[in-house]
Amino acid sequence: MGELSAQNEWSGFVKAAMAQNIPLNVHWDLTWRCDHKCVHCYLTDRKRDDLSLEEAITVLDQLVDAGTLSLLISGGDPFLRPDGIDIIRAARERHFDVRINTHGNFIDDELADTLAEIGIAKVSISVYSANPEHHDAVTLIPGSHSKSIAAG
What we know:
Layout: H1 2-19, E1 25-29, H2 53-66, E2 70-74, H3 84-93, E3 97-102, H4 109-118, E4 122-125, H5 132-139, H6 144-151
Parallel strand pairs: 1-2, 2-3, 3-4
């Protein structure tokens, strides 16, 4: 009976948030930049300017004020921003549940340790096939499969 009660409470919470237009979960493409050229990518205009670090912090503060709980940070690839980790850290400092989508090619041991230290809930790495040739045919970047696998 406890599980059903918890489900009903959660359902009521979500309905109340929706009625008040509270964006509980936000997907934020932190940058349009990406060094891959994936054939399926929805970011067709990759030359748009990124928000400045100050503007990004303002967005985070606005999301706090709006009642947002969870951020999915994606892009392009968020690690192509020199200040990407600063924005991610600022999001965690504001107690967001942060998850990241990336191709993983920039995740080395140091960055992985930093993400763990910051307290990232989940990092999802795009892998399009177990076969390196098939994966690289999607990204159009030779060797991208091995980098993505190494990041995992």
